[in-house]
Structures are given as C-alpha cells and as structure tokens.
Amino acid sequence: MALINKMLVGESLVGDGNEVAHIDLIMGPRGSAAELAFANALVNNKDGFTTLL
After folding, report:
1. CA dist 11 → 26, 27, 37, 42 (Å)
2. Beta strands 8-16 and 19-27: pairing type?
3. Most distant CA pair in the chain: distance in Å?
4. 5: how many CB neighbours lie within 10 A of its CB?
5. Domain residue spans in the chain?
6. Is the confidence at residue 34, as pLDDT, over 80?
7. Angle at Cα 13 formed by Cα 53 and Cα 39, nearest 5°?
8. What positions carry a catalytic annotation?
C-alpha cells in the first residue's frame, strides 16, 4: 500500500442540471492537519447544516 506523507486535496464536478455529482476530497496521514480538519468538521455542525471541508 502506498504511504501518504503529505496532504492531498481534490475536487470533481460531473453532470449538469439536476443530474450533478460534486465531490470534494481531502486526504492526509493520521495526526496531520487533514485529520484535524476532518474531525472538527464532523463535530462542529451549526444550525443543522454539515460543514464543507
């Protein structure tokens, strides 16, 4: 398995109109800024809305 030793960020938008898929991706090693941002996004929802990383 490949070792990820840096933070990786990606985005994809496919389709148009009502048939659209939008993915934002963040990857990084455990103990990194990526892990901290992901964990904070999960626990800090405001007014019923999920956080966008």
Report:
1. 9, 12, 17, 19
2. antiparallel
3. 40
4. 8
5. 8-43
6. no
7. 15
8. 22
Q: Which two tokens stand for residue 46?
A: 């405001």
Task: Answer for the pair 7, 33: CB distance below 8 angstroms, yes or no.
Answer: yes
Give the pLDDT confidence score for residue 42 in this predicted structure. 76
pTM of the model: 0.48
As a whole number of angstroms, the distance between CA 34 and CA 30 comes to 8
pLDDT at 37: 80
Computed from CA positions of residues 14, 17, 19, 23, in that sequence, does the dihedral angle turn out positive or negative? positive
Instruction: With H, G, I as helix, E, B as strand and everything else as coil, classify residue 24.
Output: strand
Q: What is the mean pLDDT of residues 3-12?
A: 80
